[in-house]
Here is the input.
Amino acid sequence: MFGPDFRSLEEARNPVYPFDPTIIHIKQETDMLRQLSIFAENHKGALQEITGLLAEAKINILGSVTNDSAEFGIVRMIVSDPVLAASELEKKGYQCRITSVIGVELADEPGNLNRLLIALSESNVNVDYIYLSFGRKTGMPILIFKTEDALEVEEVLTAKGFKPVGGVN
Here is the structure.
């Protein structure tokens, strides 16, 4: 009458779950590594302007890649405080976006990138782009990449024995 999992109306209205959600931590987007993307005009000194603004705000750049075209480019960065960085850059007219990305710590050995890419391919994961950073504490390479569903892909990689890294701030 009340469904196969409930023995009474009271239990159906107030179900008791087999876990306490205040004890178990469920990984959320806020736990992910966050990337700052900056849409910038392609002109002499543009990158120096961006890094200068970040330096003034005491924001550390932990990893970066730049893609350009004739007139504009996208600068993607892992920074110590992406929210503050976006705020400071937007005050100066830059368009910014913060997105979740995946960082995976890999040993600096031949074939490790290929092993990671095989694991992603076997899980039917498409990589939008990829770049490299280094762990400040471990000195290990950290591969940063963007996929469609970062949270799900991070869980897949953990299950396959890789070591994803969390947010820096």
In short: The first helix runs from residue 9 to 13.
